[in-house]
Amino acid sequence: MAIVNTDIPISSERCQQMIRSITETYPFCRSETLTETAFGRPVQTLVIGNGPRKVLYTAAHHANEWITALVLLKFGEQLAQAIAEGTSIGGMDARAIGESATIYMVPLVNPDGVDLVTGVIAEGSLQYETARTFGAYYPQIPFPEGWKANLLGVDLNLQYPAGWLQAREIKFSQGYTRPGPRDFVGRAPLSQMESRALAGYTEVIDPALVLAYHSQGEVIYWQFGEPVPGARALGQRFAEASGYELADTPYESGFAGYKDWFIQTFRRPGYTIEVGMGENPLPLSQFDEIYKDNLGILTIAAMPEE
Fold this sequence. Notes:
Blueprint: H1 12-25, E1 33-36, E2 42-44, E3 46-48, E4 53-59, H2 67-85, E5 88-89, E6 92-93, H3 94-100, E7 101-106, H4 111-117, H5 126-135, H6 164-173, H7 193-205, E8 209-215, E9 219-221, H8 231-242, E10 245-247, H9 258-266, E11 270-275, H10 287-302
């Protein structure tokens, strides 16, 4: 019986349970808690493999893009199972992946916001009503399904010190000047526990590459500033494997993101991958196609570059 159920929306508690079940079923997998949010929900990792190539995959920076968390969790379960059984995944030998790479995954960067969007936080509760108060300043954004931020009203993917002042100028000009459902950059870079913990974790791991999963658009963004050698070519391999478009990041969303900070800080390849098509949150009816499209990216990224 599958551990990762992709028929119902994710929540912070279900994410914890699935990570725990994967590590208990496959003892060569491990997990740790990076931090707790302002409301006490843990941000957890799932780590598979013991090879020298370190890669870091993240998902659900944005609350209503929670389907991306299920992509990483499903990949983690299937990779672990294939390693245990000595079979392949995505056309590659799973044990070879585990011997070549250590894959660090943070499936739920924004557990507070995800619990709001997926209905775990009850209407009438303090957390719900606080978020609704923030949302009232932006009546054009549907509540709660339009929520992207954490429960302090800060967009976690506009929190990184890579053109943060440019992001602030752009978002303020668009009217996002205070805590709300989306696009508020916060009072300073890395002011939120979630973004600060992920940045610190990245610095400790020192990965060769990062993937940042978002939705939607079926597009892969690969650059920030001066191009990193080899980044476009690897991105093209991802595009061919997935059928997604490899594209330059639009200017108005081109600053202060996690992959932007990684590229600027480490001068290594980093990618934002926008899965699926439609309006967020994407329906679970798209999950199987999204997972199929991205399995090649997830496996290719883990293997030593050719």
